[in-house]
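Shipment paperwork, digital attachment
Item: protein structure file
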Amino acid sequence: MLKLFGCMCILAASSGMAYSFVLGLKRELHQTELLMDFLTAMEGEITYHRCPLPELLMQLSQHTPQPYQELLIQGSRKMEDNSEADIPSLWKDVCEQFRPQLCLSSPAYQILLRMGAVFAYSSLEASLQLSALGRKRLSSVMESQSAEFAGRRRLYCCLSYMAGLFSIILLL
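Attachment content:
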């Protein structure tokens, strides 16, 4: 009876592990979609609100969900405090500070880091072209993530359940 209860607990744990992995995949995909929305909003703000950069970031933060909202607020504060500093390096510092909260794949995170260069250009057209290039790259990253999602989901579920079954066999 005790072994049966142990087997059920192991099976429940392996199911929870599979669910946790799949939830992480969904979170990564959702964060990438939020990044795409953020880049679209940033392009619109750059186009229509020609205001100083710290104000632009504060306006963007009002329409952007977490964790990007906090990232923008922190970026705005740093840029107000260090108006003479290099903007892309300040942006990179802020992004690195929020890296643990951002559940992004490496290519999507690199695109986020490159968006600091959008703020550095004084030319509106150059900023918009760089932003459009970032959105194009991010859409290709999103397509590849969506295509890989089903395969990785199946792999994580199979590995979790196989580990659970292996543990049950060892228990018996």
